Amino acid sequence: MKKLFESWKKFVNEQKIDKGGVYALNNPATPLATYVAVLKKYADDPTFDQMAAAGQTDGQPADEQVSVNRTATPAASLIATQAEIGFSNSLADQMTNPPWKPVQKALGLDGTPIIMPSTDNPPPAILVWNGKYILDGHHRWSQVMMMNPTGEVAIDNVTGPALDNEEEALKAMQFAIAATADKVVTKPFKGQNLMQASEQEVAQYVIENITDEVLQLLVQAGKIPKPDKQLAAKYVAGNLPVIKKSAGKFSREKSMPQAGASGVSQDAVNQALGSGKVNFDQPRPSDVRRANEQKLK
């Protein structure tokens, strides 16, 4: 017991995470952007690491159990959480079909459920909370939405008793990234926002950039009756209102998860959450003491 209390005293004296940081991580009213800023500040703190890994030994071993299951759903049934969707990210590759063949993927010509190409290997499914809200993969989703909104996309569906809404799911995901990568990176949004574009802008972009190959693929997929730029422009622009109905509200730069950029794979983050070890639900320094007490028993 003496060793236990000495260890606890040392932990308290050495910790960098202050009461304000702990309060922000515990308060459900903390805005997502503020929550992520706190994680960025303390993610590499060893005392945060101990607290963040105490999910199974905090006295409530089942409260952070999260399941991540692979399934499929129509792209148009999903809702964005990110406020900005890149115009170029959504359309450039779909108009030119570079060597990784994203057009065949988006149109479902390479099979369904659709998994879009990615820099990750293997390419991940779209990460979703509760079968509906996108946590990661917005631009892979938006490419399908602009070309084939009724197409079935593969999703990794995140559920858990402690997750009551999409904001809590995003917080849990960012907390798990901090716990596994010791770093939280978010990316700034660049370029034009598709969610603020007009159908005329989209149609003009299609006319100016679509290739003959993509026109033929749209015909093959049954989206237009013949390889005609005007028909393609009308079809693609007609999908803009569909994606706009699913607009999100959280800033990419301040809030959205980027596991790969933070230095860990999304699969590793999902596995950590599935283990129940990630102590994202009301994490407190006292959870570490309980963990040490259990080790001594």
Describe this structure in words.
- This protein is α+β, with helices and mostly antiparallel strands.
- It has 2 domains: 2-63 and 276-296, no CATH class; 67-270, no CATH class.
- It is built from 16 helices and 4 strands.
- The chain has a 4-stranded mixed beta sheet with strand order 1-4-2-3, sandwiched between helices.
- Helix 5 crosses helix 7 (138-147) and helix 8 packs across helix 15 (266-275).
- The protein is elongated and about 70 Å long.
- The N and C termini lie close together (11 Å).
Low-confidence stretches: none
- Measured distance between first and last alpha carbons: 11 Å
Question: Mind telling me the C-alpha Rg?
Answer: 22 Å
Helix and strand pattern: HHHHEHHEEHEHHHHHHHHH
Helix content: 40-55%
- Average pLDDT score: 90
Share of β-strand residues? 5-15%
Number of strands: 4
Architecture blueprint of SSEs:
Layout: H1 2-14, H2 19-26, H3 32-42, H4 46-52, E1 67-74, H5 87-96, H6 102-106, E2 126-129, E3 133-136, H7 138-147, E4 152-159, H8 166-181, H9 199-209, H10 212-220, H11 229-238, H12 240-244, H13 252-255, H14 259-262, H15 266-275, H16 286-296
Parallel strand pairs: 2-4
Antiparallel strand pairs: 1-4, 2-3
Helix pairs in contact: 3-8, 5-7, 8-15, 9-11
Provide a quick synopsis of the model.
By secondary structure, the protein is an alpha+beta fold. Helices cover 48% and strands 8% of the residues.
Which terms would index this structure?
elongated, 8% strand, 4 strands, alpha+beta, 297 residues, four-stranded mixed beta sheet
